């Protein structure tokens, strides 16, 4: 999903100030005061000592739950792998790089390498999995050779003219860096699960013929789910019988929505094939007006994010069933539904507030490709994809520059950032 581009605005919080009591009281009195303060610190959240903070009674139960939850996102995911063979992580905005900081922490964890070792992704055509793994499991002489190999395989990795989201290359580079220090039997495998296609094998495809292919995307969730099942049937017979799946919303959702236009999601295909062996987890996300449309605000009108803001945006993971979070109506997808969060996802992870999400696109390593070839090939794909007339030399340059030029933004800015701030301030003001 791509959404409107916005910028980040930092929010400052008032820090608690302490008094040097030794200047005013005798040692015995100070010792007693310290005991009292220690007792208060145990019994009350530290931020509750702030005299000026406004915390709405409506979010206090959420705050109390977060205060008691101390399971890190990585430990939570690894805990799920103790109970399930497959964990589906609900990726947020495809551009967001911050979520891939968390994913990198997960896949580099020794427990993941030892017990899981397999990653399935929404991004990437399924027929490129072998070529991609050959690159990610090789040993190159230097970084330049790695970048060139990654550029060559990724230039052909999608059915769109080019996948320019920076985080997917960063994700692959992270896997390569892990793999180069591992024996063959412990290397991490990656399985793209998107529809099968090849720009290389379709040198003469016309715009009309491409439109016929595009119609298959009406069944994309079915295709992705079946591709995932195909990969998992192999994975679940190997020594490491587990896999992490990274799917964007709504593909990672458990339940069917009456008005969504979808009969099912890719997750459902996987769960139905391996009942009792699959769990899904939502990352904190924002509400979109509709598929591929702009964000409109935060989940539950900001209640969740406000509660996490009270708790200094604490990074945690937890099961939704049996929690106040799980009982709230699921509202991250535009379709109308009365289902609760616990009916759509098994678990939830909060990792960084929306105001800190960084979107990035552009793949500088594509400059390792022959410029003349890459420039002309990208223009050909664009012309077919858009059904466009002949492309000018100027547009060819613009397309090429867009592909290799790295651009990073704060995903929220302007009116939507103000909306987010207003939603939070309904429930929490630090001073």
Walk me through the structure.
The protein has 431 residues and is α/β, with parallel strands linked by helices. It has 2 domains: 19-49, no CATH class; 65-360 and 403-429, Rossmann fold, CATH 3.40.50.11550. It contains 16 helices and 13 strands. The chain has helices at residues 27-43, 60-68, 73-83, 98-108, 110-115, 129-136, 143-154, 166-179, 207-214, 220-235, 266-273, 303-310, 341-344, 371-386, 393-404, 414-425; strands at 54-55, 86-91, 118-125, 189-194, 243-248, 278-283, 286-288, 295-298, 316-319, 347-350, 358-361, 407-410, 428-429. The protein has a 7-stranded mixed beta sheet, with helices on both faces. α2 crosses α12, α4 (98-108) packs parallel to α8 (166-179) and α6 (129-136) packs antiparallel against α7. Residues 1-50 have low confidence and may be disordered.
Outline the secondary-structure elements.
Elements: H1 27-43, E1 54-55, H2 60-68, H3 73-83, E2 86-91, H4 98-108, H5 110-115, E3 118-125, H6 129-136, H7 143-154, H8 166-179, E4 189-194, H9 207-214, H10 220-235, E5 243-248, H11 266-273, E6 278-283, E7 286-288, E8 295-298, H12 303-310, E9 316-319, H13 341-344, E10 347-350, E11 358-361, H14 371-386, H15 393-404, E12 407-410, H16 414-425, E13 428-429
Parallel strand pairs: 2-5, 2-6, 3-4, 3-5, 6-10
Antiparallel strand pairs: 1-13, 7-8, 9-10, 11-12
Helix pairs in contact: 2-12, 4-8, 6-7, 9-14, 10-11, 14-15
């Amino acid at each position: 999903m791509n959404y409107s581009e916005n910028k980040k605005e930092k929010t400052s919080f008032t820090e608690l100030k302490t008094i040097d009591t030794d200047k005013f009281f005798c040692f015995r009195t100070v010792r007693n005061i310290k005991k009292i303060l220690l007792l208060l610190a145990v019994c009350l959240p530290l931020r509750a000592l702030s005299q000026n903070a406004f915390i709405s009674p409506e979010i206090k139960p959420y705050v109390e739950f977060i205060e008691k939850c101390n399971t890190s996102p990585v430990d939570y995911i690894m805990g799920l792998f103790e109970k399930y063979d497959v964990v589906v992580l609900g990726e947020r905005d495809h551009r967001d790089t911050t979520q891939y900081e968390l994913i990198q922490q997960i896949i580099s964890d020794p427990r993941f390498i030892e017990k899981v070792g397999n990653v399935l992704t929404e991004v990437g055509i399924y027929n490129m999995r072998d070529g991609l793994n050959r690159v990610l499991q090789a040993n190159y002489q230097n970084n330049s050779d790695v970048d060139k190999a990654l550029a060559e395989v990724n230039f052909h990795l999608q059915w769109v003219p080019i996948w320019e989201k920076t985080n997917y290359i960063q994700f692959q580079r992270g896997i390569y860096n892990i793999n180069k220090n591992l024996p063959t039997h412990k290397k991490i495998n990656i399985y793209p699960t998107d529809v099968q296609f090849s720009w290389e094998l379709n040198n003469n495809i016309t715009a009309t013929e491409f439109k016929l292919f595009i119609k298959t995307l009406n069944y994309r969730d079915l295709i992705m789910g079946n591709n995932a099942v195909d990969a998992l049937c192999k994975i679940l017979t190997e020594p490491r019988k587990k896999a992490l799946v990274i799917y964007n919303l709504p593909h990672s959702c458990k339940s069917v929505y009456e008005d969504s236009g979808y009969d099912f999601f890719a997750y459902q295909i996987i769960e139905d094939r391996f009942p009792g062996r699959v769990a899904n987890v939502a990352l904190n996300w924002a509400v979109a007006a509709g598929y591929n449309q702009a964000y409109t605000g935060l989940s539950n009108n900001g209640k969740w994010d406000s509660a996490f803001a009270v708790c200094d945006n604490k990074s945690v993971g937890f099961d939704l069933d049996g929690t106040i979070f799980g009982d709230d109506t699921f509202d991250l997808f535009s379709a109308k539904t009365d289902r609760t969060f616990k009916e759509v996802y098994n678990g939830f992870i909060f990792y960084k507030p929306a105001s800190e999400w960084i979107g990035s696109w552009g793949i500088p390593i594509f400059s390792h490709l022959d410029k003349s070839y890459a420039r002309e090939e990208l223009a050909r794909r664009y012309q077919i994809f858009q059904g466009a007339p002949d492309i000018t030399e100027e547009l060819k340059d613009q397309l090429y520059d867009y592909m290799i030029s790295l651009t990073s933004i704060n995903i929220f800015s302007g009116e939507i950032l103000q909306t987010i701030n207003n939603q939070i301030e309904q429930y929490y003001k630090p001073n």
